[in-house]
Design goal:
Elements (H helix, E strand, L loop, with lengths): L1 E6 L5 H6 L4 E7 L2 E7 L6 H12 L6 H15 L1
Antiparallel strand pairs: 1-2, 2-3
Length: about 80
């Protein structure tokens, strides 16, 4: 029983055309090979970056809140 995940572009073209996802799970058991498409719901680059920013943030202040605070301070100076 062996299993791996592949990018569909590494598969031969006749198989590649039939699969509607970017990755497949390749499972082999008793000489039978099964390709299962892997769905990536909600996997967008901006969502991932926001999540990473939250992970690496020290929790004090986001850049958006910092800029808002600076604008407020400038208005007070006038």
């Amino acid at each position: 029983m062996d299993e791996m995940i592949l990018n569909v572009k590494t598969l031969p073209e006749p198989l590649y055309r039939r699969i509607r996802s970017e990755r497949v799970r390749v499972h082999e058991e008793n000489g039978v090979i099964t390709l299962t498409p892997i769905e990536d719901p909600g996997m967008d680059i901006w969502g991932c970056l926001d999540e990473l920013r939250g992970i690496f943030s020290d929790g004090r202040m986001s850049s958006d809140k910092f800029m808002e605070q600076k604008r407020f301070e400038k208005e007070l100076e006038r």
